[in-house]
């Protein structure tokens, strides 16, 4: 089966993840410290992550919060002790690159996050990242062209034959999903609201309403006949 751009959900909310997983359209989940901070503080993070993994089962990115290489590696080891399938999300810093390099030597998958330029993406790939997350929305927020940067990265990946998987991240609206797919991104990680929005079309709603109205006519006739 040919699989197109995969969709991940960018969330740490169990109810959102359950709803979207039931649709069968997602194959992974990305979390970050800000998303986890929105959840019930009395539930330990490892419990939230384990529940998410139980629901979706595929990719799950869990981010470290240390800023030094040793701390990041220690945290990665801890995350993997409670979820061996986790992909370790590492920020795009010099310390982060060293951590990615060491973790890739141990064949531990990493997702380099907060990537805003092609040179950062290249560095992450060279350090051994399995995934590189390009943040579209945050670039747009400061008046830069998020999709343009993603297109440049995808062109470089194509020309150079690079293997790290690009994740289109910081998605703000359905057109970001469309543009990520057009650019050839293999994965887009999308917040719940945007995922649900991307399924809707006013003509679908109006068309269904008309079909149901008409069905009620013949249904009534066939019941009374
Ligand atoms: C990616 O993995 C990040 O969690 C995410 O896409 C950040 O997006 P934001 O800019 O909406 O916070």
Describe the structure.
The protein is α/β, with parallel strands linked by helices. It contains eleven helices and eight strands. It has helices at 14-22, 33-37, 45-56, 69-82, 94-105, 118-127, 136-141, 146-160, 174-183, 192-199, 202-224, and strands at 6-10, 28-30, 59-63, 87-91, 110-115, 131-135, 165-169, 187-190. The chain has an eight-stranded parallel beta barrel with strand order 1-2-3-4-5-6-7-8, surrounded by seven helices. 36% of the residues are buried. It binds erythose-4-phosphate. Erythose-4-phosphate is lined by residues 10, 30, 32, 113, 133, 135, 137-138, 169-170, 189. Erythose-4-phosphate binds next to strand 6 and helix 7.
Content of β-strand: 15-25%
Radius of gyration in whole Å, from Cα? 20 Å
The topology string of helices and strands comes to EHEHHEHEHEHEHHEHEHH
User: Cofactors and ligands present?
Assistant: erythose-4-phosphate
Which structural class should the secondary elements be placed in? Answer: alpha/beta
Output mean pLDDT. Answer: 96
Q: How many β-strands, per DSSP?
A: 8
Helix percentage range: 55-70%
Low-confidence stretches: none
Which strand order does the major sheet show? Answer: 1-2-3-4-5-6-7-8
Major β-sheet, in short?
8 strands, parallel, barrel
The geometry reads as: globular
């Amino acid at each position: 089966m040919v699989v197109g751009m995969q969709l991940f959900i960018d969330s740490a909310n169990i109810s959102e993840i359950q709803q979207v997983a039931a649709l069968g359209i997602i194959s992974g989940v990305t979390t970050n410290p800000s998303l986890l901070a929105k959840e019930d503080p009395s539930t330990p993070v490892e419990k939230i992550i384990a529940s998410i993994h139980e629901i979706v089962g595929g990719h799950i990115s869990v981010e470290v919060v240390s800023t030094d290489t040793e701390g990041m590696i220690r945290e990665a080891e801890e995350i993997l002790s409670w979820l061996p399938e986790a992909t370790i999300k590492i920020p795009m810093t010099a310390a982060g690159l060293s951590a990615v390099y060491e973790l890739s030597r141990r064949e531990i998958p990493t997702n380099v996050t907060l990537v805003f330029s092609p040179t950062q993406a290249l560095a992450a790939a060279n350090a051994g990242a399995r995934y590189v997350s390009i943040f579209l929305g945050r670039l747009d927020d400061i008046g830069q062209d998020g999709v343009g940067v993603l297109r440049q990265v995808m062109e470089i990946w194509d020309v150079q034959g690079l293997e790290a998987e690009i994740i289109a991240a910081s998605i703000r609206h359905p057109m970001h999903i469309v543009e990520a797919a057009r650019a050839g991104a293999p994965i887009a990680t999308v917040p719940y609201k945007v995922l649900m929005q991307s399924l809707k079309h006013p003509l679908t709603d109006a068309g269904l309403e008309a079909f149901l109205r008409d069905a009620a006519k013949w249904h009534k006739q066939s019941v009374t006949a």
